Amino acid sequence: DGGITQSPKYLFRKEGQNVTLSCEQNLNHDAMYWYRQDPGQGLRLIYYSQIVNDFQKGDIAEGYSVSREKKESFPLTVTSAQKNPTAFYLCASRGTATFNYGYTFGSGTRLTVV
Amino acid sequence: GEDVEQSLFLSVREGDSSVINCTYTDSSSTYLYWYKQEPGAGLQLLTYIFSNMDMKQDQRLTVLLNKKDKHLSLRIADTQTGDSAIYFCALPGAGSYQLTFGKGTKLSVIP
Q1: Which residues in chain A show pLDDT less than 50?
Q2: Which of A69, B31, B67, B111 is the least crowded, having the fewest Cβ atoms under 10 Å away?
């Protein structure tokens, strides 16, 4: 079955460490997105990519980095410059052939700073 | 840019109807969406409506769209405890497929 997979489900980071969250899709979707979710804040866009080897900053890109070397993969690195990284991170994708242009979401990664 | 507003909380008794409301600022959206998020999970597309429709019904779900007032609503009939979740309204901005999400309405169903 086609879908979007995020790993790991839970991740713990020590102060000063970089960590990378994985997002892989086999839906042949062109566009991919990373969101951060905090209680009561809804979804905030971190980065998005509409095509391989190209990506744009979202509303809260500071302290994060991404790459898009393959259509299927859009990893997110949370760097030590991100001062408050504890949150739930969601990856999504959208295909231009999807008739209603809706997003498909992964199941999320919960990142906790210890 | 697009602004999407939802109330944050709604509490209903099991068996009653739930109505979740959403207002938006950009009237050029083609599709408007409702997503459901269960605790600890990602968002799943619940239903959507095309902008040339006023209403869409899908089993217990009814979506109403009032383009004049820029108001979208989701009605859940015979609400069950399994409907307890956060519901997000989402729509694309002008000339874009990129979705803007409301902050989500947390629906609590009281047995």
Answers
A1: none
A2: B111
